[in-house]
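Narrative of accomplishments. A recurring question from our advisory board has been how the design workflow behaves on a single, concrete structure rather than in aggregate. To address it, we present the structure tokens for one chain from the evaluation set, followed by the sequence designed for it. No filtering or post-editing was applied between the two.
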């Protein structure tokens, strides 16, 4: 079924809070909230699962969340996930990133960040909250067979984290410059530094390595 309005499901373990958030989401003109569930496991059994575009889930307990997301993506590979969670350990956050979530922000995030995250993920972009990106920057990079062991120089500056986040959200150089009040040349300089630090050659590789794998 083709549609231009995002078909979404809200997952929240607490009924009263679920109703409050649902009421807020239903005011969005670009979204149709077609269902609610108390947990991700129950979403698997929704008969209209393949018609859903986005799952907005409050992940108070993240230990089993990554596995549940992987199971749902096997059934519906195009399904997008935006998670709102507490200050989980970076190990768990990285597991969620690997599982295929398109967005992750803290429950305590401001309303404007919720709105930005929902809009970005609905449009097929990737969005990770500033707090998550900051904490990832404080975590040593993971080593793969094609990557050298990380050193302290592999950590990113606050400005590089901002650039990384906007690149992953598919912002153009000019838009990044406008957003951060810096010149286009400065943006390109930071982008080159990110490529060098993360061992990638383009923005696609940057997003794949730095965001999808949680490596920054």
């Amino acid at each position: 079924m083709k549609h231009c309005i995002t078909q979404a499901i809200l997952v929240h373990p607490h009924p009263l809070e679920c109703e409050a958030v649902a009421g807020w989401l239903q005011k969005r003109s670009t979204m149709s909230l077609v269902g609610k569930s108390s947990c991700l496991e129950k979403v698997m059994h929704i008969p209209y699962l393949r018609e859903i575009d986005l799952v907005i889930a409050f992940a108070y307990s993240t230990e089993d969340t990554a596995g549940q997301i992987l199971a749902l993506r096997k059934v519906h590979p195009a399904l997008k996930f935006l998670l709102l969670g507490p200050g989980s350990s970076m190990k768990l956050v990285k597991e969620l990133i690997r599982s295929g979530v398109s967005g992750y922000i803290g429950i305590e995030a401001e309303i404007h960040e919720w709105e930005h995250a929902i809009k970005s993920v609905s449009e097929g972009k990737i969005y990770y909250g500033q707090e998550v990106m900051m904490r990832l920057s404080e975590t040593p990079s993971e080593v793969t067979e094609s990557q050298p062991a990380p050193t302290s120089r592999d950590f990113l500056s606050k400005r590089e984290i901002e650039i990384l986040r906007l690149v992953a959200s598919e912002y153009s150089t000019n838009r990044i410059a406008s957003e951060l009040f810096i010149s286009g040349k400065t943006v390109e300089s930071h982008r080159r530094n990110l490529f060098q630090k993360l061992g990638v050659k383009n923005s696609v590789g940057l997003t794949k390595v730095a965001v999808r794998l949680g490596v920054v």
